[in-house]
Design brief:
Layout (H helix, E strand, L loop, with lengths): L21 H26 L9 H15 L9 H15 L4 E2 L14 E2 L4 H27 L4 H25 L3 H15 L2 H22 L4 E3 L4 E9 L4 E8 L2 E6 L2 H4 L8 H6 L6 E5 L5 H8 L4 E6 L2 H10 L10 E5 L2 H7 L4 E7 L22 H9 L1 E12 L3 H15 L4 E5 L5 E7 L37 H20 L4 H4 L3 H25 L3 H22 L8 H16 L2 H5 L3 H29 L3 H18 L3 H4 L4 H15 L2 H4 L7
Parallel strand pairs: 7-8, 7-10, 8-9, 10-11
Antiparallel strand pairs: 1-2, 3-4, 4-5, 5-6, 11-13, 12-13
């Protein structure tokens, strides 16, 4: 039975000497932690190219740091150090960004190995980022833990969730509005000053101003904008031969798109026209272009005599820049309809039929979320996605895709995918040697296509990507060696840092089940984020809704748990395993066959029922714990381990990740102290 602690006032003072209540500190600090976590993922990922491949590096560091902060709660307040560590992090990333130095607009897919880089080497910058992030969140979370310990555990947990929801809402709103990073820094600095005591504030003002200053120098550059996905930098070159500008767009420091006027394209053979050459002498009437970007592909389609173009682009800022800067004004043409959406989502929802569908350089350096290995375009190149394309083609329609694929085996995979879906070999036309640029075209049976060259596969046995395993750019089912080295380093640093902060086995062993529950919950959350990305699109808005929905379910669960009496944990675990079994056996293809509303309702039940049951168990255990902060520390460190286990999806896929979740929850059940398997009645 938990003893309800009174709401003591902490020593933290607000303006005028007024002390802050622990409830306010928990809400504000938890919101600040989540807001800062999202900010660092976005900003550091835009400046350190390695973070495009080490998917959840900052997330893992933040969870470790928060767990350490809960273990440190008995020490003197460390809040003063937060802006000093943060300004060191910002300064290093600002002065030593790791970006790829390339002279072409070729696109990056795999890793930075072999490319010329700026900044510090990978073995120096990644450990610095991980340790620095862990230190930032450890010192910040200590303030949260001190206030947390002064409140009844479930009340503190509810306030923590409310603050986290607020943090997601604020950052999502800022992303929607396109506000630059110095606004993020100002919000973080303002929250820190509110939480600090008067002596602490005097020490914190200078580093906070330095943080805002560094971010301001980057944010106020006239050629830089921030979309919900990228830091977009514009470079304009005036071409004297046509007396027009060509515009290059770099995203996160990587050459990504280029506006090339039609007048310049006519001077040389352009790959943009190859799909129309394969289509035949009569131009297609209705064309769908996915990855329309800044409009060059659309301008070419109109120039080829197409009567109507549906253009799909996921990034609203890139589309807006194309409308503003493309000299051919394709988006202003009455024959064009522009949709800001994920390409796979558009294909699943539309009822339109097309003569030609083009995947026009769709690629990204951006991940669906900071905790998954899924990229924005991953679900567009699966066998199921290509089958969806085929369903939207007229009987004599054609499908083309083109890009700098860089590796022959990737062209083999895409060729095999199109061959299996259309039951005929596509035309594969390659240009250049360095980046393996290729155009792949395949048509329905009613349209004859003559291929000017024959593609000889280098790996005839390579398998297409699938919705259950959407890793197009992974050659083999394995965890790459540099991932394994990074994981080993993370676990080693985590082990010693937990020991140094007093996290002994004796102290944390009563909460071993909460450790495994934290690991399971993180893996389950990753599975759900990826699941919703497939069902409803990989847009930032869908991701924000999923994260917010998960936190809302947890909040409602904790609210219910305050009035819930749990006499035995075993039946709850059995119900949890049953809900995971449902998530395992229900195929995603089955859900995709339904309209959006029933699909959403079923997806919510399947995804959120295990979260509801697991958090009923967690809330009951937290309320019955002797030390809510030690219990939370064990859970948070477990969540960090769950984030590491996400890399197993590179071998088993995301659907099978449900089995990993079930095993982790089984370990939690096994780790329960015996007297808690049949716990005494817990009353509100």
């Amino acid at each position: 039975m938990e003893i309800q602690a009174p709401q003591k006032l902490m020593s933290t003072e607000a303006g005028g000497g007024r002390q802050l209540r622990p409830s306010f500190i928990v809400s504000l600090t938890s919101g600040l932690i989540l807001f800062l976590e999202l900010s660092l993922i976005r900003w550091a990922g835009a400046n350190i190219v390695h973070l495009s491949y080490f998917t959840n590096f900052i997330l893992l560091g933040s969870f470790l740091g928060i767990g350490l902060g809960f273990l440190w709660r008995r020490y003197r307040s460390l809040l003063t150090f937060v802006p000093y560590i943060l300004v060191s992090f910002v300064a290093i990333v600002y002065f030593f960004p790791v970006q790829i130095v390339r002279d072409s607009t070729s696109l990056l897919f795999f890793s930075a190995v072999g490319d010329k880089l700026t900044g510090l080497p990978i073995w120096a910058i990644l450990p610095f980022i991980f340790v620095c992030v862990a230190a930032i969140f450890a010192t910040l979370a200590q303030t949260l833990a001190q206030a947390f310990s002064q409140l009844p555990s479930l009340q503190a947990y509810r306030l923590d969730l409310l603050g986290s929801l607020a943090g997601i809402a604020v950052f999502s709103s800022i992303s929607f509005l396109g506000w630059p990073p110095f606004v993020w820094g100002a919000i973080v600095g303002g929250c820190l000053l509110i939480l600090a005591t008067r002596p602490q504030r005097r020490l914190m003002v200078v580093p906070i101003l330095a943080i805002v200053g560094f971010l301001g120098l980057e944010s106020l550059q006239s050629n830089t904008q921030w979309s919900p996905y990228y830091k977009i930098t514009t470079k304009t070159h005036h071409d004297q031969s046509i007396d027009q500008d060509t515009t290059l767009f770099l995203v996160n420091g990587i050459p990504h798109q280029q506006i090339t006027p039609l007048a310049l394209l006519r001077q040389y053979e352009s790959f943009y026209t190859i799909p129309y050459q394969r289509y035949g002498a009569t131009p297609p009437k209705k064309v769908l272009i996915i990855g329309a970007g800044t409009g060059t592909d659309v301008a070419v389609a109109l120039n080829q005599g197409v009567e109507h173009v549906d253009a799909v682009e996921i990034d609203p800022v890139l589309a807006r820049l194309g409308r503003k800067k493309n000299p051919d004004r394709p988006y202003d043409d009455s024959r064009v309809r522009l949709y800001i959406n994920d390409g796979r989502s558009y294909l699943e929802r539309t009822k339109e039929m097309y003569d030609l569908i083009i995947f026009a350089l769709p690629d990204s350096l951006t991940l669906v979320a900071g905790q998954s290995s899924l990229r924005l375009e991953s679900y567009m190149f699966t066998k199921e996605a290509v089958a969806t394309v085929a369903r939207h083609l007229q009987p004599d329609g054609m499908f083309s895709m083109y890009n700098y694929y860089r590796q022959p085996w990737l062209i083999d995979r895409l060729e095999a995918t199109m061959n299996q879906v259309f039951h005929r070999a596509p035309c594969v036309e390659t240009k250049g040697q360095g980046d393996n640029f290729a155009v792949l075209s395949v048509a329905k049976p009613d349209r004859p296509v003559t291929c000017p060259e024959t593609w000889v596969a280098t790996e005839a046995s390579i398998k297409p990507a699938a919705d259950t395993y959407p890793f197009l750019y992974l050659h083999y089912r394995l965890i790459p060696k540099f991932y394994l080295l990074a994981i080993a380093g993370i676990l080693l640093v985590s082990f010693f840092s937990v020991r140094l902060t007093g996290g002994t086995w004796r102290r944390l062993s009563p909460y071993a089940d909460l450790f495994w529950m934290g690991a399971a919950f993180m893996a389950l959350e990753t599975k759900n984020v990826v699941h919703f990305a497939l069902l409803f699109g990989t847009t930032w808005f869908v991701n924000a809704l999923v994260f917010g929905g998960i936190l809302m379910v947890v909040f409602l669960t904790v609210t219910l748990a305050r009035r819930l009496t749990i006499k035995r944990y075993l039946p709850w675990y059995l119900a949890l395993f049953a809900s995971l079994a449902i998530a395992w056996v229900v195929p995603e293809a089955w859900l995709l066959s339904y309209a959006v509303v029933p699909r959403f309702m079923m997806a919510v039940v399947i995804a959120f029922l295990p979260i509801f049951l697991a958090n009923c168990i967690f809330a009951s255990r937290l309320r019955a714990s002797d030390s809510s902060t030690d219990a939370m520390a064990a859970n948070l460190i477990g969540a960090m381990v769950g984030g590491v286990l996400e890399y197993t999806s590179l071998i088993i896929g995301y659907q099978t990740l449900v089995i990993v979740v079930a095993v982790l929850y089984a370990l939690a059940l096994w780790s329960l102290p015996r007297f808690r398997v049949e716990a005494p009645t817990i009353r509100a």
